[in-house]
Specification:
heterodimer; A: 167 residues; alpha/beta; Aconitase, domain 4; 7-stranded mixed sheet; 7 strands; B: 423 residues; Aconitase, domain 3; 2 domains; 5-stranded parallel sheet; 13 helices; 18 strands; binds iron/sulfur cluster
């Protein structure tokens, strides 16, 4: 499944990994701890306010800063189904794919969305729809190799599968 | 068509004659690094992959440095997890409290990374080793787990931006930190996103290895995948006696292709200060104005090396820290710590009214050892001034080189070193 429908949470440019999950919470990698402190310094009580399946729509360079995988994990554990951004910071981009958090690079398409709008995203097809305005947008799709990781669910499954295949 | 140093290292590690930008490759890793925050997550993923042994116990490196010596019970559990794994896997390069230092200061010092190596680390500042002419990049914990299992990593061959360092510094306090802050100020925090930054030019001759590590270290603050430098006499002198394994030196071809070129003029460069809350928010020291501060931190993988300690001591010698301000100095490794004792640097800092800590990341990421209260301002030689990075979300961080930091600790406000010692 690569299609997600949800309500938009709109955030700005350069949302760094300290804002997504501050280092003071990194002494505990449990899903519960990550979930409750996710984006806390950007939107207080974020994890309580969102509904399962909601979608983050962000500006440029989302996830810049540290390599902490805790950042995409925190977003995933919150119940966010997908992150759409103008662009992603490099390590966050890898991490999201590797842990199975669906993401899509959308460039200026993000300008069409505001807090609370309803959005549909098809990650495999690179397709985005504004459900309130009825507008549709096409973005780039992932290269085949990355699609294989996405199809496996995450990099751990993919590696396991590959190691078995190689005997 | 010629290749860049980055392309050559990637091709060699992927077993290919040549690689092209944008190509996805599977490359062999020489070093896979984790720490007490990212390591435990990687270990869990590694175990999920159903693999018993790491691909090579000489090439998997684990360093407890972020919240270590353990700052609380949960951190102690994470450190223990790392320790247990290192022992059961019989890792060659695991360094316990007493031997450990901040990973990106420690690995070069111990000669674990060599020119031409391909290094991945579950820490964004892994890019530091580019100063040695190695390809080094930050990844996440799952990437680290996959590399621990297979000895390989998937990478997209990046475009390269050439950074020409022109001229000789004329300001006596200008060091690597000012070069990289000026660059980030110029191109922005996503100015090199997904790309490689390759540093070169005459200016490099005037920068010692410690300054070069600082520059490569903050390449990630411009969004870069790696920051890399050519291997010259200074690099060779540094690795001699440290690196015990055979290594290969790569250099960019004269007809290599670059996506862009940027120049930083060292002759006109002045010490730089990054204002809250982005490293790109830079100003020259003479444009700073009146900024009173509550704390100064000198340390981290950016500026916790010997050159940094010496500069700080040079300015603080015989002076007193401002009574309304806390000065915290943190050497990067035990080796640097001991050298500071030998050179009398520890005495100078304590007599000035500062504290001198054991090596740790500590306040750099808001862990411990100098957390800021609401509304407080700090000047730090670290690399990130994001919201809440050093403590309360309403505290503020300014970034500078160690000379500006030490001078400001005396004045109680951000100031040029010349205000303490003349030219
Ligand atoms: S000193 Fe700071 S930037 Fe460097 S590894 Fe430690 S926490 Fe990260």
């Amino acid at each position: 499944m690569s299609k997600y429908i949800g309500r938009v949470w709109r955030v700005g440019n350069d949302i760094d990994t300290d804002l997504i999950i501050a280092a003071r919470h990194l002494n505990d990698a449990s899903p519960e701890n990550l979930r409750k402190n996710c984006l806390q310094d950007v939107i207080p009580d974020f994890s309580k306010k969102i509904a399962k399946g909601d979608i983050i729509v962000a500006g440029k360079n989302f996830g810049c800063g540290s390599s902490r995988e805790h950042a995409p994990l925190a977003i995933k554990h919150c119940g966010i189904s997908c992150v759409v951004a103008h662009s992603f910071a490099r390590i966050f981009y890898r991490n999201a794919i590797n842990i199975g958090l669906p993401i899509i690079t959308a460039g200026n398409v993000i300008e069409a969305f505001q807090d609370g709008d309803r959005i549909e995203v098809d990650v495999n097809q690179g397709f985005i729809r504004h459900l309130d305005k009825g507008q549709e947008y096409q973005t780039e799709t992932f290269p085949p190799f990355i699609q294989e990781i996405i199809a496996a669910g995450n990099l751990a499954n993919y590696v396991q599968w590959r190691m078995k295949a190689n005997g | 068509m010629g290749m860049t140093i980055t392309e050559k290292i990637l091709a060699a590690h992927a077993g290919l004659e040549e690689v092209k930008t944008g190509e996805l490759i599977n490359a062999k890793v020489d070093i896979a690094l984790g720490n007490d925050i990212t390591g435990p997550v990687a270990i869990k993923e590694f175990q999920k992959m159903g693999v018993k042994k790491v691909f090579d116990p000489d090439k998997v490196v684990m360093i407890p440095d972020h919240f270590s010596p353990a700052k609380d019970i949960k951190s102690a559990e994470q450190c223990k997890n790392l320790r247990d794994f290192a022992r059961s896997q019989e890792l060659t390069h695991y360094y316990e409290v007493g031997q450990m230092g901040i990973e990106h200061c420690l690995l070069p010092e111990l000669g674990i990374v060599a020119p031409g190596d391909l290094v991945i680390g579950a820490d964004s500042h892994t890019v530091t080793y580019g100063a040695l002419g190695a390809f080094a990049t930050g990844v996440g914990s799952t990437d680290l787990a996959a590399a621990m299992a297979t000895g390989e990593v998937w990478l997209r061959v990046p475009e390269t931006i050439k950074v020409n360092l022109a001229g000789k510094p004329s300001n006596p306090w200008v060091v690597g930190k000012d070069v990289i802050l000026a660059l980030i100020g110029k191109i922005g925090v996503d100015g090199a996103l997904y790309q490689s930054l390759e540093f070169g030019g005459e200016g490099l001759d005037y920068l010692n290895m410690d300054s070069r590590f600082t520059i490569a270290n903050m390449a990630v603050e411009a969004g870069a995948k790696n920051g890399i430098m050519p291997v010259d006499e200074k690099t060779r002198a540094y690795v001699e006696g440290r690196v015990k394994k055979p290594y290969q030196v790569y250099a960019s071809d004269s007809d290599a292709v670059y996506s862009n070129e940027v120049e930083i003029n060292l002759t006109t460069l002045k010490p730089q200060v990054a204002f809250p809350h982005l490293p790109s928010n830079t100003r020259s020291i003479d444009e700073v104005g009146m900024v009173p501060i509550d704390q100064v931190v000198i340390g981290s993988c950016t500026n916790g090396r010997m050159e940094d300690m010496r500069i700080a001591a040079q300015i603080l010698k015989g002076k007193k820290v401002h009574p309304y301000l806390r000065l915290i100095v943190i050497p990067g490794t035990q080796g640097i710590y001991q050298q500071c004792i030998r050179e009398g640097i520890v005495d100078i800092i304590i007599e000035a009214g500062g504290v001198f800590s054991t090596p740790t990341c500590g306040p750099c990421l808001g862990g411990y050892m100098g957390i800021l209260a609401k509304g407080e301002k700090a000047l730090a030689t670290t690399n990130r001034n994001f919201v809440g990075r050093m403590g309360h979300p309403e505290s503020e961080i300014y970034l500078s080189n160690p000379a500006v930091a030490a001078a400001s600790a005396i004045k109680g406000r951000i100031t040029a070193p010349e205000e303490i010692i003349g030219n």
